[in-house]
């Protein structure tokens, strides 16, 4: 049985979404990050920084959302599904994964850390306008290569779209402005049938913990 250690509205939703897209059976276990569960010895053995997501699949334990999604798609996905069939297009998916994590997400995460994640004495409100500027700069870079029509790689939804749609949804939650075409793309990707059950599984796990 695959086990996903999760927390609602975090990066673990990407993994739950990928699991649902792949039609895999899995157990969703809530990690009470606010209550300190992430910093227990048992959980630090799974993730060295006490964060989510963590995936356990048999003898394999993985952390980092993009790496987990990539593993699931490669191990369990059909050729040409969440990962394209050709080496070249798989490289293009990886290119976008690195861009999304390194450029788009990092600016949003900086804002989150300095608004509510870090201890109060470590927050620097003065950095927030710079982080917002960085995000908009990354959005403009994205627009130079992707106009919001179709999908990022090839003619169907891939892992690159899953991570981009999730990251853009974070941006909306943080009240960041998105170009109309990218907002329409986000809504189209988020309407996929696999996302709602993924959200539900995380919420149910949290409520029953």
From TrEMBL:
PANTHER family documented for this protein: GLUTATHIONE S-TRANSFERASE GSTA, GLUTATHIONE S-TRANSFERASE-RELATED
Superkingdom per UniProt: Bacteria
Name the UniProt record assigns to this protein: Glutathione S-transferase family protein
All copies of domain GST C-terminal, residue ranges: 86-208
UniProt domain GST N-terminal: residue ranges: 1-80
Gene3D superfamilies: 1.20.1050.10, Glutaredoxin
Family, per entry: Belongs to the GST superfamily.
